[in-house]
Design a protein that fits this description.
This protein is α/β, with parallel strands linked by helices and 405 residues long. It has eleven helices and 13 strands.
């Protein structure tokens, strides 16, 4: 879709305001949830929203909102401003930018659309091992009811951080919203390879995550015979390869399995590894497939550890079922794209998003835009500003259609 120069320029200005915050020497950004860099992102959001004459609010968990109305029955457009360690500049930020663009267009066109743009805290699991904390707490998501014990990368508990910041882990439930919309980069290759401009999300994959500790015996690597070892790292290696097999077995159901964290102790050349910690991530849009993967994971751990004389502790840290978006919102977004001449396709989301939290309390929908090479959670993450405008225009067109009805 061709866009007005003023729209591209405004999108560029929004992007540049966020650009340098949390920058790293490697070219990426690190903006961990509930850190000073995430705080700086929220301050920038307040400034940009203030330019539109929006009323700015912060809730009991630190989420920030820009509103063009105080009435209920509003549409909430949101995403997050935190990042993974050494992440990219578009993940989350593009969605907040899109919300501001929709608010700006409604103001310029004189169309009354009750609207709020939300910037949610700590969507990424990088700091606490738990995702969608800000949105999950305000929607009273059951999976966020007992998370105060979670520890940040710097060793401080979430409960302590909230107490220090004057926040609460038991906030009032958000109310008054009629629907939730979110734009996000796809974080995959489908749209780019199919040369499709936007994706309309139908289901968001549910994650199951484990923290696995393997306990062998740290001994001298030269003096301990091969048949007398309890090597925790060998058990870990076997489990990692089994998880790859499990993921491939279930790939027909669009499920995946990853071991993304490996910490070896004592990590010394001439010492047999005595303790290894693994972070295991299983995701899928089919609950039956998720259940099978979890059972297979547990069996693989039992078998490998028994064979090698290694003890283990498996702690489930996250388990959320697949979440479906509203069919009526999906239809509306698809029709809006068609009216604008923007190509679209229905698709699932393999990654988790704040929309998961809101789908339980109101009609919710997501719009994906392409990202170059499908690369995300990486400094080379890139999306075209024109793609952000495409997705934002689809949401705006959809909302105009809803108001007209």
């Amino acid at each position: 879709m061709e866009h007005q120069i003023a729209d591209i320029q405004y999108c560029e200005r929004l992007f540049q305001r966020f650009y340098e915050i949390g920058s790293t020497p490697q070219g990426g950004v690190t903006r961990l949830g509930y850190s000073e860099t995430e705080d700086a992102m929220h301050e920038a959001f307040k400034e940009l929203a203030g330019e539109l004459g929006a009323r700015i609010d912060t809730d009991e968990v630190g989420n920030t909102y820009a509103a063009n109305t105080e009435e209920t029955g509003y549409t909430l457009i949101g995403s997050h401003l935190d990042s993974v360690i050494e992440g990219g500049r578009y993940d989350g930020v593009a969605g907040v930018m899109a919300g501001l663009m929709v608010m700006r267009w409604a103001k310029e066109d004189g169309i009354r659309i009750p609207l709020r743009v939300g910037a949610f805290r700590c969507e990424e699991s990088s700091n606490f091992g738990c995702c969608t904390i800000g949105s999950g707490l305000i929607t009273h998501e059951v999976y966020k009811q007992d998370i105060g014990h979670l520890m940040a990368k710097d060793g401080e508990s979430l409960e302590s951080i909230f107490e220090r910041r004057g926040l609460t882990l038991h906030p009032k439930k958000i109310s008054g919203l009629q629907r939730y919309l979110e734009l996000h980069i796809e974080q995959g290759k489908v749209l780019e390879e199919c040369q499709t401009e936007v994706g309309i999300v139908g289901t968001i994959a549910g994650p199951i995550r484990y923290r696995l500790e393997l306990r062998g015996m740290a001994e001298h690597s030269g003096a301990t015979p091969m048949d007398m070892r309890s090597d925790a790292l060998c058990a870990a290696a076997e489990i990692i390869l089994e998880m790859e097999k499990i993921g491939k077995w279930e790939s027909a159901y669009q499920s995946v399995a990853t071991v993304g964290v490996v910490q070896n102790h004592p990590n010394v050349l001439n010492v047999i590894p005595g303790r290894v910690e693994l972070g295991v991530d299983m995701r899928g849009i089919d609950q039956g497939s998720l259940d099978r993967m979890e059972r297979a994971f547990k069996a693989a751990v039992r078998e490998s550890c028994k064979k090698r004389g290694v003890e283990y502790v498996a702690e489930k840290i996250n388990s959320i079922p697949p979440i479906s978006m509203s069919e009526s919102v999906e239809d509306g977004l698809e029709h809006a794209a068609k009216r604008l001449g923007i190509s679209s396709r229905r698709m699932p989301s393999g990654a988790g998003h704040d929309a998961m939290s809101f789908a339980e309390i109101c009609d919710s929908g997501m719009v994906f835009i392409p990202c170059r090479g499908g690369v995300s959670h990486n400094p080379s993450e890139h999306a075209e500003l024109s793609s952000i405008c495409d997705g934002a225009r689809v949401m705006y067109e959809y909302l105009k259609g809803e108001i007209a009805q």
